[in-house]
Amino acid sequence: MFCQESTDPEYTFLGVGVALMYYGLLRKSNVNKIQIQDMSQDEKGRVKIEFAHSRKRKNPGFSCLIPSLYQKLFLKYESELSTELKSSDT
Questions:
Q1: Domain contains 90
Q2: Pick from 38, 12, 7: which is nearest to 25 by CA?
Q3: What is the pLDDT of residues 7-47, one digit of tens each?
């Protein structure tokens, strides 16, 4: 909750990383590969991550579902990313 309420974008990123790792993405290297288009929300406000990835074993990837408790954190992260991407385009 601290990361969700913080105004520092670094803590927002940290909170998202911790939530992703806790709810299914246990490897830091996988968290770093997630793109914004891999994230979506369902009708209950839960964040769904669908991640196409293959390693040694040929698998299509995986998905994880983050509870709606973290919806505000993920929306904040998405808006901060969007702002950052827009400013780098100019």
A1: no
A2: 38
A3: 888 888 888 888 877 877 666 676 677 777 887 888 888 88
